[in-house]
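Pasting as-is:
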Amino acid sequence: MAGGPWFYCLKHNTVEPRDGCAERHRLGPYETREEAEHALTSVAEREKQITDEDRKWEGD
């Protein structure tokens, strides 16, 4: 991972390198700093996709 790995810290709302906060406070790892900066958006998009798939599976 070039220059990484990178993590998004939920405690501080910042992007951190490997030597950052405890894992329980972070999302990642991400290959690039830019990917980590968009971690919350990526999580929201995946959650929406999973919710939509669950609704289709359940017949809603």
